[in-house]
């Protein structure tokens, strides 16, 4: 096992943009005065999630859904291994974490979609209630995600948060990705800025 490049730049940048957007959206959610900030933060989360869905098909090896999405039975098997403190090491996302990733991406889009309909005053209270309910579910999944990251880091003796910053994890040399894809990261930034401008300012 070597210290190899696993996460490309769009994955890492997108992740920390989602974290910042989610935190800001939570903090500004209840305030009328901060409404525009809230809408911009939510749009950031949704724009990154949309980009990430596409990147899951065309991105680098460990970013692709095909490389990390496994069956629910595989996810349960991994959790059982984790409880026995003997989980197999996965170079990319582990099978249980993969389901949290999919849930977070789906919830990000649904929560932001319901929020956008509320902002556009479509559907009355219905979408506002749905938006708040989905945001609460998302907070719960974020909590589970953080518990999983902490447990995985401890049991594997590998700092997964640092890996999401540096892109580097333990793995076999042949599993390393060739480059960080800086151009795609610039595209992600431009797309996110355009989406925020369109939703919060132009529409
Ligand atoms: C401070 C809070 C957070 C920390 C420290 C954190 C940490 C991490 C880490 C270490 C991973 C990689 C897990 C692995 O190695 O398999 C990851 C993946 C991920 N996290 Fe978080 N996370 C945080 C908050 C969030 C939030 C709020 C969201 C959603 C709004 C989120 C969504 C995701 C997604 C979608 C992935 C998959 C990344 C990808 O493949 O593109 N995280 N997170």
In words, what does this structure look like?
The protein is mostly helical. The chain has one domain: Fumarate Reductase Cytochrome B subunit. 71% of the residues lie in helices and 4% in strands. It is built from eight helices and two strands. The protein has helices at residues 9-28, 35-58, 65-68, 72-83, 95-119, 125-156, 160-166, 182-202, and strands at residues 2-5, 168-171. A two-stranded antiparallel sheet has the order 1-2. The longest helix is centred in the C-terminal third of the chain and has 32 residues, at 125-156. The protein binds protoporphyrin IX containing FE (HEM). Residues 11, 14-15, 18-19, 22, 45, 52, 63, 93, 97, 101, 104-105, 108, 142, 145-146, 149, 160-161, 163-164 line the site of protoporphyrin IX containing FE.
